[in-house]
């Protein structure tokens, strides 16, 4: 789960199937389509997704296929996430309830099968299952072999960093959730208040209108699919790059009205 930062990394928040905005982001960051379907940065920067690339928005398959190809080619990395894990289990044939936008992934696959046939659909589903089943809960980014940044979906405790257990995986997928309130919304504890030290933790999952910087942690989920924006954190530049949503795809209210994810 260690990645060398090299010349630089571009860490991208929750895409949620908003493929058009994601492509616009890649252009803005300077990545170019090499004609082989792969986007590369001319200086050799590395792309890192914090997961939840699918569900809720219009183009889950395109987003998942992008990461399938780019992870395989060593051009990108993607962490585990709550929607990613749900879709992984669904693709594995386990009994799961598809909701909160995951049902759209199933619909997309039905249309995909109509268009491309059963064989190709089965192959893609199998490849995606393997990708999503094997994503790590977090990555540790290093500069000159020194740990600098932790990338994870929903949060992490300091003592979990560099370890992988089922409890740690769940924490990184869902954050520090203490049950649900009377409306079914998760009650979230603020794990980031307990983070200490210089290691920078970049996370997403819980949409905030602007990047939220607390105790060397930065939330970069700005609610793209809810009509907000897609955020990239660039290191070593320590800059944010934004792409605004073309619309609110979620069928729900905007990000100021927090939504169960
Ligand atoms: Mn999430």
TrEMBL record:
Residues 9-208 form the Calcineurin-like phosphoesterase domain. One of its GO terms (molecular function) is phosphatase activity. Pfam families: Metallophos. This is Calcineurin-like phosphoesterase family protein. Signal peptide: none annotated. It comes from the Bacteria. One of its GO terms (cellular component) is cytoplasm.
